[in-house]
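Reply to dn_fold:

You asked what the input looked like. This is it:
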Amino acid sequence: MKALRRAAKTATTAVALTATLALISTACGTDPNRASNGGGDGKGVTLKIWDFSAEQVDFHKLVAAEYHKQHPDVTIEWRSITQSEYTKTLPLAFQSNQAPDIFYWSDSGTNNMNQLLEQQWIKPLTPSGTVPENFLKRWPAGSFVDGINQSGGKTYGFPFSENLYWGPGYMFVNKKVFGDAGLDVNNPPKTWTDLKNACAAVKEKTKAQCIASPSKGKELQRIWGGLAPGLRNEQFFDLKTGKFSIDDPAAVKTFEFIQDLNKSGYLAPGTNDKDFSRQQFAANQAAIYFDGTWMPSVWKSQGFADDQYVVAPHPNPDSGATGALSRQPDGNKYWISSKSAQQEKAWDFLNWMTEPDGYFVKEYYKAGFGTLAFADNKKLVTDPALLNIMKIAETPGYRVNLPVPVLKCPDLAKSKAYLDATAKRPSGEYEVMVEALVGNKPLQPLAAQLVKERQDIFEKTLKEEAAKGLKVSKDCYTFPDWNYTSDYSLDKYKK
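and this is what came back:
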C-alpha cells in the first residue's frame, strides 16, 4: 500500500483528480461531488459502491433497484470502472476524500485486510466491530481468521468468492477454430507438447491465432495461471522454503515454455490487454484462452454462447504435474471505506447482499457470474460451462489448500515484513516476465534481482519486528513438510 500512497501522491493534481472523477461521472451518469449522506431529492441516504466488474453493470442496477424498493430511504450508486483505471482512481478518491462507501479490493490476497488497514482505507463491518452470529454462520467453519478478515477482535471483511472453484487455471477452447484446424475439441491438449502440437495445426490450417494471451501490465497472469501450476503453483512466494520464488527452477522453466510458445508464433502478437484478447477468442480469431471461473459470464456478455467453446483443465508438463493451483482464504473483496459517513447503512447493505437465499444471490447465479462463498453452489449453479469448471476443480489435486502463515504465527497479523517487501514493486514479477518476453531475454537474471530486493527487505523487517517483541520469523512462512499437490490440513499447525 505504500506503493499506492506514492502513486497517489505523484499522480494527483487538482486537474488530474477532477478529470478522473469527471470521467467516472460521465460513464455512470452520476455526480461525483454528491455527498454520500443524501439522495438526489434531499431525502434518505446514498451509498456509493465501486468495483471494476463491467459485465455486471446491468445486474448491479437490478440489485440497486431492488434494495431501494425494500429500503426506500437508501439509494445505491454502483459504479464499475475499467480495471486498468480502477487502481489509479481509487487511491485518488481516498486522497481527495471522495472515496465510495463500499469498494472492491482483492489484489493483495491473504494480506488484503492488513494492507488496507495500514493504508487506513477501511472500517469494521459494523460500528462496534462485532457481527451477529447468524451472519458468521453463512460461511463454513474457519472462514473468519484473525489477520485475514478479523483484527483486534473486530471483523473487517468476509469471503465473497469461495476458493475451490473460483480462481485462475482453466483453458477455454474455441470450437470453430479447433474444428477448422482439424482438431477434436472434445480431446483438448493435456500436456505441454499437446498444446504445442495443437498450436502448430491452428497456425498451419487456419488464419486464427493459437493462444490469445494478454501481456499488458499484470495481464500475463492469465497464461501464467494456466501453466505455472503444472510445476508448483501460480504464486510468487514458496511456502516450502519461505522465499520469493520467481527465480526458482519451476518458475523459470514455466516461463521458458511461454517464451517458446511466443517464439514459435503461437501467442497472438502485440502487448494486448485482456479485453482485446477476450474479443479475439469470442470473434473466432483465436483457438485458446487461459483465464478463470468468471469467464462464462464474460463470454455471455459478449454474445459468445456456451455451446461455442469448451472448458478444459490446464495442460501439464509431459512428465506429469508436480504442482497444483492454490487455494487460500483470500476471497475477502468488499470493504467499508474509512471515509464513509454511513457505516451502519453500508453494513445493512452487505448483510442483505450476503443472505444465502436472498435477491442478490439468486440473481447472481441466474446471470451465471460464478460461485459465492456464502451460498450453496451445488444447488444454485445452472450454467453448463460453470458446471464443467466445478467438475474440473473437484478433481483431487487440481486446487489445493496452501499453508496459511498467520495460523502458524498469529503475530504475523501485526507484521509488515511481507507488505514492505512487495510494496516497492507490487507487480514486479509480471514486470520482469513481460520485459523478458517482449525483449526475448532470459528471465533468471531479472528475476534474481527482484527476488533479492524482496527477500532482503522481508528478512530484515522480520528480524527488526522480532527484536521489538513480535513472535515472527522466516520460519513462520516455511512449511518443509508440505507437498505442492496436497492440501495443507489444519491439524498440522502447532497450537
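The radius of gyration is 23 Å.
Hope that clears it up.
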